[in-house]
């Protein structure tokens, strides 16, 4: 549009003086018409210095890695080393039964900025458990976690992601499902798990893995290396909610901060 205007003005300038006695005023409103068009931000970006442009292109994309069914002394410790080395945070949904033997590991998780969540005391299917058992399984794991790492809110990940609407009303913390599941427990193969995650991942996702398996620890560390190069930042689930301005509600099962999973 700009070009057409210039051409018209240039053509007008070439006309004999007599014909130009009443020059046509350029219609500046035409600029307003194009202000919302896609090419405008590209033009602006083009005028930026190289460093600012790189910063904009590399603006962080946030994602949360979550690990279920731990802690397990050897694999979880190795994972924590790798996370620390890479400056990545994660969330661990731990099984209550495994808390007493792994207190030091849990304290390390907390000290290094990771989030700790509840995965029930003995990994029960909450959907079919008695209501009393649901309360007991959650409460028992929570008590052990408080003994190990102190007071806090330990968000629940129901084993297998199953709970049902009736039982979810008994839960007094937010519940976290996932939005990317590479089925690491089934594949037991680092490269396949990495490929499955990289193919599916979007900013804001919650990725399900299990620190119980050595292949999953290897996969997690490679996923971090690959996605950090693409500008991803690894945060805890709690941070992911905060960044997106979502206050999670107790008894609600979230697949991501912006997506609730229907439990009925
Ligand atoms: Ni599990």
Layout of helices and strands, plus pairs?
Blueprint: H1 2-14, H2 29-34, H3 39-46, H4 50-57, E1 61-68, H5 73-86, E2 91-94, H6 103-111, E3 115-118, H7 131-149, H8 165-168, E4 175-176, H9 184-187, H10 190-200, E5 206-210, H11 214-229, E6 232-234, H12 237-243, E7 253-256, E8 259-260
Parallel strand pairs: 1-2, 1-5, 1-6, 2-3, 4-7
Antiparallel strand pairs: 7-8
Helix pairs in contact: 5-11, 10-11
Bound molecules: nickel (II) ion (NI).
Q: Your description of this structure?
A:
The protein is an alpha/beta fold. It has one domain (60-261): TIM Barrel (Alpha-Beta Barrel). The protein contains twelve helices and eight strands. Strands 1, 2, 3, 5 and 6 form a five-stranded parallel sheet that branches. Strands 4-7-8 form a three-stranded mixed sheet, with no helix packed on it. Helix 6 links the parallel strand 2 (91-94) and strand 3 (115-118). Helix 5 packs parallel to helix 11 (214-229) and helix 10 (190-200) crosses helix 11 (214-229). It is globular, with a radius of gyration of 27 Å. Nickel (II) ion (NI) binds at residues 68-69, 119, 123, 159. The site of nickel (II) ion has 5 residues, from loops.
Produce a short descriptive summary.
The chain is α/β, with parallel strands linked by helices. The chain has a single domain (60-261), classed as Glycoside hydrolase/deacetylase (TIM Barrel, Alpha-Beta Barrel). The chain contains 12 helices and 8 strands.
């Amino acid at each position: 549009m700009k070009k057409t205007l210039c051409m018209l003005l240039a053509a007008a300038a070439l006309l004999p003086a007599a014909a130009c006695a009443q020059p046509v005023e350029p219609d500046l409103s035409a600029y307003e018409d194009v202000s919302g068009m896609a090419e405008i931000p590209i033009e602006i970006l083009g005028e930026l210095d190289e460093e600012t442009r790189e910063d904009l292109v590399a603006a962080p994309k946030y994602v949360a890695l979550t690990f279920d069914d731990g802690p397990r002394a050897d694999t979880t410790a190795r994972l924590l080393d790798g996370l620390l080395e890479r400056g990545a945070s994660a969330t661990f949904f731990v099984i209550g039964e495994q808390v007493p033997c792994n207190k030091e590991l849990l304290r390390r998780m907390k000290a290094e900025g990771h989030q700790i969540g509840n995965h029930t005391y003995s990994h029960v299917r909450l959907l079919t458990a008695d209501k009393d058992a649901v309360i007991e399984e959650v409460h028992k794991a929570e008590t052990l976690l408080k003994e190990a790492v102190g007071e806090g809110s330990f968000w629940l990940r129901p084993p297998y992601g199953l709970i049902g609407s009736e039982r979810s009303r008994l839960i007094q913390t937010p519940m976290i499902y996932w939005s990317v599941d590479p089925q690491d427990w089934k594949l037991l193969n680092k490269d396949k798990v990495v490929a499955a995650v990289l193919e599916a991942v979007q900013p804001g996702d919650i990725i399900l893995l299990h620190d119980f398996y050595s292949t999953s620890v290897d996969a997690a560390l490679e996923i971090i290396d690959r996605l950090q190069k693409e500008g991803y930042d690894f945060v805890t689930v709690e941070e992911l909610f905060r960044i997106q301005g979502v206050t999670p509600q107790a008894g609600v099962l979230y697949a991501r901060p912006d997506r609730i999973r229907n439990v009925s």
